[in-house]
Each structure stands twice: as structure tokens, then as C-alpha cells.
């Protein structure tokens, strides 16, 4: 093009071993003040100066033909302006020169995308020094030859220019570039932008049709999922395998011999916690009130499909009577003269029968030892549990209907009681060129951030929890579709809006009389607020100036760096300490709303009934010779190991073998004789039918398996539950007799061991995926390392400060931590890439330029996200509040890393 200078310099896509950095300096001789243009090779094209009106009129026709040709075809890989993998890189330098004339007007102010002008003579002198010993005539001839080829004019035209010969100054340095994937991807998106700009309606309508077609899949989604075990417990839980063994070897009969501790799976029940307003519930008047409540509950009935369902029909039974909701209340109902001030805990003997009060009374204060227990001084609470049958499907359905009726009556009773890049393109540009330019600039960035977020969520598929798997699959797929719609449908909207701007601009330009002037309303609809059609370039935002002129220099000062390092050390110390204090596992009460009746129930249960935990089965999994004294000694040693554990009450152990040996001793039978031992079992079970379901005898009169019971204590916290489970399983594994421990609550306790393992694995895999993606798509390996460092640092901080904000490490917070990985990448990747891509000579200047370019967008992203999720801070559900807390921590820590820590740390290396 006339008036341009074509300069041939080594391409950006050089082998990493070259490590070259090219700085081009040009000096205009006819200016009153000497201005030196410093240009860096990452800028591909500069806008040309305006020529005079007379010359513009002469060039008008030729320029219109050239523009028309440019609009009809997209740039290809042969275009030197966008070709990267070439041997030489050609840069147009618009110098405002036409033939022999140089414009004398002062150059306009540079836009944020342009390299600033430098007025000092130091750079000029540096250029002149760098020209010594260079073959100036040879380089000038090469330049003139290439210019003549580009413009189609003979070499003499180029010789008429009064510019001083230009010599490139090469400064060597170690700048490793790996843009072999990023560069072609950018060109591919450039062509896609051209196509979207050419056919916007196609890219608008096709996604809408696809949405309508895929939207029909909603009819195949299940309407509800009530199985908490399926959603919130580990898939490969060891307790689930243990449950299958128990179900295969031990029978259960809810209609004749129900026993809660012998149940292998969860069962339906209704529970009421009664709390005394006085010091104790052990008063005759209080027992009378509780007895009235009990009778009212047992008289409830439900109607389902025209069938009346009464409590006696759905209650779990022992022998022929419903299992009493509270054994002490039942004893008082049978004997109103029962003296409530003479009870012992945890076992009370009433008329020769042992009454177990564990789980029946809570908030107890105990005195001296009396018989098998300690005297109860006071008991603050009583629990009533109405067990329901759940063996058959019909029993489950009827029990469910009765429970619904129960909840309705209880509730009534309680109520009676109490777009940055598109703005930087020219409005007057061709729509296809604008879209092509936008796609080439931002599509790769969108691809990187979207791909990393998708990979972060898809790593959650490896989790052992169904709820996390479902969430990550749905969210990852949603992000994938959002990405496709962004580069198609949203791009089509931008193209159509760009055409609207062009049409509005033509209306404004064609006005010739005051009557034809566009109205203020039309101007407001056509252009953004404060926009003038003559302003082709966006102005510098004040916040960008703040980061460049104030915040950046302040942050890169020596004193500030020292304090930043101290703050980061304190941050890491607090984060690690918090990581050691975080609670693991999902508290079931957190799945309910704050105003749900279940939350106060669990709170009272934790306050008054948390000392005693579940009753655990100790199962002999294989056939052993129980009549062999050595076997009995080994088994007794293992049972003593269980009793001596800190989480076991040694006085509440129950084992059929001990009772059977006492039975044989009372009958003068030899327990070491096999025939005697096996033949006497039937008489023993007749006298003690409760043990019938603890011994599995085959048809060949062989004991295949059997079980005993131990009572856990002091496991109110998630850590104690996990330790108890691991210790009991460890004792069973070390025993010389094949043993297994099980309680249906272990299925939920397994999450306390699995959640930490799953979280660490998912975070490591997701971080590795982030590193690989950044390594391939961001053309700077050092940038990938800093991104990975920032991800690890933010995750440690978020996890640690979760403990300070009362957030457990559970399946809900694990999902948010996976989200944390993606956001951490977004904040740190752009700042790091801007730093390593900067052409500034010093590390501090590189950091300042990175903050100038991306500090404000990072701050905007963090603040807008926090504002968006802040409404969840007052939500009534723990799930939403947890999402807000973790997202708030992610945004704050991510922004601090992107705006403070990373810019400072980058200056150290």
C-alpha cells in the first residue's frame, strides 16, 4: 500500500532455542520534535494516518475497490498479517507517508491496544548505537524490494521516501514460546468469526432448533429421588458389602421378633423427643402427660385408596404386641407404682427383667453404682420411637402413609403450641472483519477457560458419591453447550447488532439538513451512552489508569513486596491450620431447610442422646469349632479387645456364646463335646428366643455364622465416628477368628473416610488437567507453572478457611471445591500470561503492564460474582449457604492471588 513500509524480521514462531526478542525503532526526520516509535512484534498491524483531502479524493476510487475485494473474501493462512508459522513475519508500519510528503501533524493519542510513544532521546541514541556495523544499504534494498512487490510499484517509488534507513535491533533473551497449538486455533476461530459475521441467521436459528429438540429430554427425567443412601454415601462402601453378608446369613422378622440392633438396613420409624421444663422428666405428672401423648399417637390412622391404616397394623412387633416406644414408659404404664427415683442407668432391673435405657433417656446425671448400673439423679429428656414394619414393599407403602398422617398431626400440634473485546473494534469496520477480529482475540481465551472448567467438573465423575457424579455430569455438559452457544448463537447476536450499528451510522452520516438530523432517541438506540460516531477507538478506562499509574508501582516497590510475602506466609499458615481442623462428612440435618422440624429434633438428640452411639454387630463370618476351647479363647480375646477400645462400653456387650456357656454350665453339660454342644442349642434358643436370629445353623447342623453386639460411646463428631469405624475394623482384621463389624449407620460413616480421599484425588487430577491444558493452549510453560501454583494455593486457602466458617468437608463442599479449581485458573492464567507476554524490559514493568491490561477485568469478575451469589447468604438451606461461603472465599482468594500475590511473585523469577 502507498505510504507504508514493509519490514522483514524473524517470525514469532521461532524455535525455543533462539530466544530472540526484536525491537524496531523508527525516527521521523521532518518532525519538529523527535519522536521514536517503539514497536513490539506481537502487534501485527497499526492503523494508518489520514492523508490530505486532495490526495484522499484521488485515492478514493482505488481504496473502495480494495475494500470491496477485502470484504468478499476472508483472510487465509497466506495473508502475512495473520500467518504465524512462517519463516519471516511481515509487519506494516503506517507512518503517514505518501510519496515524498510526511504529515506534519502531531500523532494522535495511542489507544490501550497500541504501543505508547516515547519522547526521550535515550531510545533514539540506543537505536543509533545499535546500527553500528550493520549493512544499512543491503537492508534498505531488501525493504524497498518487498515494498515494491506489495504495492505493485517500481523500486524508485520506495527510494523517494525521506525516511531514514530502518535497522532492527535484536535483543537476545530466554523467552520460550510454545504457541504451535494456540496460533492455529486463533486462526481457525478467526475464520469462524468471518463465517458467523457472514451468515448470522444460520448460527442463530440452528442452536435454537437444537435447544427445542434436546429440551424434549426433560420428559425422561425422574421427578424425584428420595433415596439419601444412594445419593450421599460412597458407591463402593465397605459397609454395603457387609450389609449384603448380614442379609444373606441372618433373618429378620419385623412382624414377630423385631430388634432395632439386629436390623441390617434402615427401617421406618416415628420419633418424639420430650424435654422437661424442670430438672428431670422422672416425675409422675410428667409421665402421665407423656402417656397421654403416646396414646394419641397410637390412635392415629391413615386412609389410603379407601383402606384405613391403623398403627397396630403397621407397627413392628415382638411376639404379638407392638414394640413399645420407650421401655421405661411401658414399665410405668404396666405398674403405676413404679418408683422413678430409684432407677439405674444404663440397665435397670424391673421385676427380674432387664430394661435397657440406652437411647431412651437423655441428659442423665448419675450417682453411685447400684447393681448393674448407676443411680439416675436426673434425666432431662425422654425419647419415644415408634418402629414400623418395612420388610415387604406393601409394608413400606402403608408405613409411609401412616408417617405422613403422623407428621401432619404433629405439625398442627406444634403450630397450636408455638463484553470487553467487542468494544475495542471500530464501529465503521466491516461486520465480517469485526467478527473475525473478535473471534481471533477472545475465542481462544474462552476455549481455555471453558475447557478447564469442563475438565474440572468431569473429574468429579470419578467421585464415589452419586450426588457429585450427577452434579458434575450435568454441570460439565451445561458448560459445554454454553461454549458452543457462545461461539455460534451469541456471535450471531453480536453480528446482527453490529449491522444495526452500521445502519445507524449511515443514517447519521447521510443527514444534510437540520430537518434530517437524527433524533436523540434514535442516537440513544443506535449507540451506547456517550458514544460519538467519530470516536473509532475506545478510551482508556480510569481503573486501568489506576492499576498502571498507582496500584502497579505501589505493589512493585520493595517495601510492598516485603509485606506481601509476610501476608502470604501468614495466609498459608492459617490455611494449613484450618485444613487440620476441618470436619469431614455430611450432617444429615444440613439436607433440610432451617425451618424444618427435623433440625430441632437433631439438635436436641445431639444435646441429650449423643453419648451412646449405634449398637454394632460383631459377626463370625465362617464356620468355626465353637466347642474347641482354643477357638473360644481366641474369640474371647477378640471380644475383650473390642471391650477395651475407647469407643466401646465394656458393660453393654452381648454375645450368645457367653449366655450359651452359662446355660450349659447350669445344666451340667460339657461345652467341649461337639455333639453335646450342637444338640443343646435348640433348648437354649427355646428359653432365650432373642438369640434365634443371631445363630445361622445349616441343615447339616453346622453353625455357618453367628454374631454378638457391642455398644459404641462418645462418637458425636465426624472425626470420632471415622476413628471408631477404622479401629473396630482393624481389631476385626487382626483377630485370628474371621470377624466382621457392621451397623447400618456404617454406610453413612464410610463417607468420613471416603470424602477426604475423593477430594484429594479430584483436586490432584483436576489440577493436573489444568496444567496440561494451559501448557498446550497458553504459549508459555512458565505461565502454566504459575497457574498450577495459584490453583493449589487457593484450594488450600479455601479448604482451611472453611473450618473457620463452620463448613464441613462433605459432598456438597467437594462440588464447590471442584468449581474453585476452574475459577482459580481463570484469575491466575490471564495475569500470568500477560506478564510473560509483555515486552517491557524489567520485571516490575512487566507486572505493571499485566495489571494495567487485566487488573480491572479480574476485579470486575470477582466483585460481580460475589454480588451475584450474596443473595444465597440468607438462604434457609445449608446447601445454598455453603455455596455462597465457598464461592466468596474462592473469589476473594482468587482475586488476591491474581492482583497481589502472583504479580509480586513473578517479579522474583
Assembly status: single chain
Task: Round the mean pLDDT to the nearest integer and report it.
Answer: 74
DSSP strand tally: 22
Strand content: 5-15%
Protein name: Patched domain-containing protein 3
Subcellular location: Cell projection, Cilium, Flagellum membrane
InterPro entries: Patched_domain-protein (IPR051697), PTHD_SSD (IPR003392), SSD (IPR000731)
Region (Disordered): 47-80, 105-141
Helix-strand blueprint:
Elements: E1 4-10, E2 20-27, E3 36-40, H1 53-72, E4 88-94, E5 97-98, E6 101-102, H2 121-130, H3 136-151, H4 155-159, E7 169-172, H5 182-198, H6 200-214, H7 228-232, H8 238-249, E8 269-275, H9 284-298, E9 301-304, E10 307-310, H10 311-314, E11 317-318, E12 321-322, H11 327-334, E13 344-345, E14 347-350, E15 353-356, E16 361-370, E17 373-387, H12 393-417, H13 431-458, H14 466-510, H15 520-526, H16 542-555, H17 558-581, H18 598-608, E18 612-620, H19 629-643, E19 648-655, H20 656-666, H21 674-679, H22 681-687, E20 695-697, E21 703-713, H23 718-734, E22 739-742, H24 746-777, H25 781-804, H26 811-837, H27 843-869, H28 878-906
Antiparallel strand pairs: 1-4, 2-3, 2-7, 5-6, 8-17, 9-10, 11-12, 13-17, 14-15, 16-17, 18-21, 18-22, 19-21, 20-21
Helix pairs in contact: 5-13, 5-14, 6-14, 13-14, 13-24, 13-26, 14-26, 16-27, 17-25, 17-28, 23-24, 24-25, 24-26, 25-26, 25-28, 26-27, 26-28, 27-28
Amino acid at each position: 500500500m502507498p505510504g507504508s513500509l514493509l519490514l522483514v524480521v524473524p517470525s514469532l514462531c521461532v524455535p525455543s532455542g533462539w530466544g530472540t526478542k526484536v525491537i524496531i525503532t523508527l525516527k521521523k526526520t521532518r518532525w519538529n520534535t523527535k519522536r521514536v516509535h517503539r514497536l513490539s512484534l506481537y502487534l501485527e498491524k497499526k492503523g494508518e494516518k489520514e492523508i490530505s483531502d486532495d490526495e484522499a479524493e484521488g485515492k478514493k476510487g482505488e481504496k473502495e475497490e480494495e475494500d470491496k475485494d477485502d470484504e468478499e473474501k476472508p483472510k487465509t493462512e497466506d495473508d502475512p498479517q495473520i500467518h504465524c508459522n512462517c519463516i519471516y513475519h511481515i509487519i506494516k508500519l503506517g507512518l503517514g507517508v505518501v510519496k515524498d510528503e510526511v504529515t506534519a501533524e502531531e500523532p494522535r493519542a495511542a489507544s490501550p491496544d497500541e504501543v505508547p510513544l516515547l519522547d526521550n532521546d535515550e531510545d533514539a541514541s540506543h537505536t543509533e548505537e545499535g546500527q553500528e556495523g550493520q549493512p544499512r544499504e543491503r537492508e534498505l534494498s531488501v525493504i524497498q524490494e518487498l515494498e515494491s512487490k506489495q504495492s505493485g510499484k517500481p523500486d524508485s517509488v520506495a527510494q523517494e521516501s525521506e525516511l531514514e534507513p530502518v535497522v532492527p535491533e535484536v535483543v537476545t533473551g530466554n523467552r520460550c514460546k510454545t504457541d504451535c497449538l494456540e496460533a492455529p486455533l486463533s486462526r481457525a476461530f478467526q475464520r469462524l468469526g468471518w463465517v458467523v459475521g457472514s451468515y448470522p441467521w444460520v448460527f442463530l436459528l440452528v442452536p435454537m432448533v437444537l435447544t427445542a429438540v434436546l429440551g424434549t429430554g426433560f420428559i425422561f427425567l425422574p421427578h424425584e429421588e428420595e433415596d439419601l443412601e444412594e445419593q450421599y454415601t460412597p458407591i463402593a462402601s465397605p459397609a454395603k458389602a457387609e450389609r449384603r453378608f448380614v442379609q444373606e446369613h441372618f433373618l429378620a422378622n419385623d412382624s414377630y421378633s423385631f430388634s432395632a440392633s439386629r436390623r441390617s438396613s434402615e427401617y421406618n420409624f416415628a420419633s418424639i423427643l420430650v424435654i422437661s421444663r424442670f430438672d428431670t422428666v422422672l416425675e409422675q405428672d410428667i409421665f402421665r402427660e407423656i402417656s397421654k401423648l403416646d396414646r394419641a399417637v397410637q390412635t392415629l390412622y391413615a386412609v389410603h385408596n379407601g383402606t384405613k391404616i391403623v398403627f397396630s397394623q403397621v407397627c413392628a412387633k415382638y411376639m404379638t404386641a407392638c414394640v413399645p416406644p420407650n421401655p421405661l414408659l411401658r414399665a410405668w404404664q404396666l405398674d403405676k407404682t413404679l418408683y422413678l427415683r430409684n432407677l439405674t442407668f444404663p440397665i435397670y432391673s424391673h421385676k427380674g427383667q432387664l430394661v435397657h435405657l440406652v437411647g431412651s433417656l437423655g441428659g442423665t446425671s448419675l450417682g453411685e453404682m447400684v447393681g448393674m448400673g448407676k443411680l439416675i439423679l436426673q434425666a432431662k429428656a425422654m425419647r419415644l420411637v415408634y418402629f414400623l414394619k418395612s420388610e415387604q414393599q406393601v409394608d413400606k407403602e402403608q408405613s409411609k402413609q401412616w408417617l405422613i398422617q403422623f407428621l401432619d398431626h404433629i405439625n398442627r400440634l406444634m403450630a397450636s403450641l408455638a463484553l470487553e473485546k467487542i468494544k475495542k473494534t471500530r464501529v465503521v469496520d466491516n461486520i465480517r472483519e469485526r467478527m473475525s477480529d473478535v473471534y481471533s482475540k477472545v475465542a481462544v481465551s474462552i476455549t481455555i477457560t471453558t475447557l478447564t472448567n469442563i475438565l474440572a467438573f468431569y473429574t468429579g465423575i470419578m467421585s464415589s458419591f452419586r450426588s457429585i457424579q450427577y452434579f458434575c455430569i450435568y454441570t460439565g455438559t451445561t458448560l459445554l453447550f454454553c461454549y458452543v452457544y457462545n461461539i455460534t448463537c451469541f456471535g450471531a447476536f453480536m453480528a446482527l447488532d453490529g449491522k444495526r450499528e452500521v445502519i445507524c451510522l449511515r443514517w447519521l452520516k447521510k443527514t444534510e439538513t437540520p430537518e434530517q438530523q437524527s433524533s436523540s432517541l434514535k442516537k440513544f438506540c443506535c449507540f451506547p451512552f456517550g458514544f460519538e460516531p467519530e470516536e473509532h477507538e475506545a478510551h482508556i478506562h480510569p481503573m486501568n489508569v489506576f492499576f498502571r499509574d498507582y496500584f502497579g508501582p505501589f505493589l512493585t516497590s520493595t517495601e510492598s513486596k516485603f509485606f506481601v510475602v509476610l501476608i502470604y506466609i501468614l495466609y498459608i499458615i492459617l490455611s494449613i491450620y484450618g485444613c487440620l481442623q476441618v470436619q469431614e462428612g455430611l450432617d444429615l440435618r444440613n439436607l433440610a431447610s432451617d425451618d424444618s422440624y427435623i433440625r430441632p429434633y437433631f439438635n436436641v438428640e445431639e444435646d441429650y442422646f449423643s453419648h451412646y452411639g449405634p449398637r454394632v454387630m460383631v459377626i463370625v463370618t465362617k464356620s468355626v469349632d465353637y466347642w474347641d476351647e482354643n477357638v473360644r479363647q481366641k474369640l474371647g480375646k477378640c471380644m475383650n479387645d473390642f471391650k477395651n477400645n475407647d469407643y466401646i462400653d465394656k458393660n453393654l456387650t452381648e454375645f450368645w456364646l457367653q449366655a450359651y456357656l452359662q446355660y450349659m454350665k447350669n445344666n451340667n453339660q460339657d461345652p467341649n463335646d461337639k455333639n453335646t454342644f450342637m444338640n443343646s442349642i435348640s433348648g437354649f434358643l427355646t428359653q432365650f428366643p432373642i438369640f434365634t436370629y443371631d445363630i445361622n445353623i445349616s441343615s447339616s447342623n453346622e453353625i455357618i455364622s453367628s454374631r454378638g453386639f457391642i455398644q459404641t460411646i462418645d462418637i458425636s463428631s465426624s472425626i470420632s465416628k471415622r476413628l471408631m469405624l477404622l479401629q473396630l475394623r482393624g481389631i476385626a482384621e487382626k483377630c485370628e477368628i474371621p470377624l466382621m463389624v457392621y451397623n447400618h449407620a456404617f454406610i453413612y460413616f464410610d463417607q468420613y473416610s471416603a470424602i477426604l480421599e475423593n477430594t484429594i484425588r479430584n483436586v490432584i487430577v483436576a489440577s493436573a488437567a489444568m496444567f496440561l491444558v494451559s501448557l498446550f493452549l497458553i504459549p508459555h510453560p512458565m505461565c502454566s507453572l504459575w497457574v498450577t501454583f495459584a490453583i493449589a494455593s487457593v484450594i488450600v486457602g479455601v479448604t482451611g478457611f472453611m473450618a473457620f466458617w463452620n463448613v464441613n468437608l462433605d459432598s456438597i463442599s467437594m462440588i464447590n471445591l471442584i468449581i474453585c479449581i476452574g475459577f482459580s485458573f481463570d484469575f491466575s492464567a490471564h495475569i500470568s500470561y500477560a506478564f510473560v507476554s509483555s515486552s517491557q524490559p524489567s520485571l516490575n514493568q512487566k507486572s505493571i503492564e499485566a495489571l494495567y491490561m487485566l487488573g480491572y477485568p479480574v476485579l470486575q469478575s470477582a466483585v460481580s460474582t460475589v454480588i451475584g451469589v450474596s443473595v444465597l447468604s440468607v438462604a434457609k438451606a445449608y446447601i445454598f449457604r455453603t455455596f455462597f461461603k465457598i464461592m466468596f472465599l474462592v473469589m476473594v482468594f482468587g482475586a488476591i492471588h491474581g492482583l497481589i500475590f502472583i504479580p509480586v511473585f513473578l517479579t522474583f523469577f
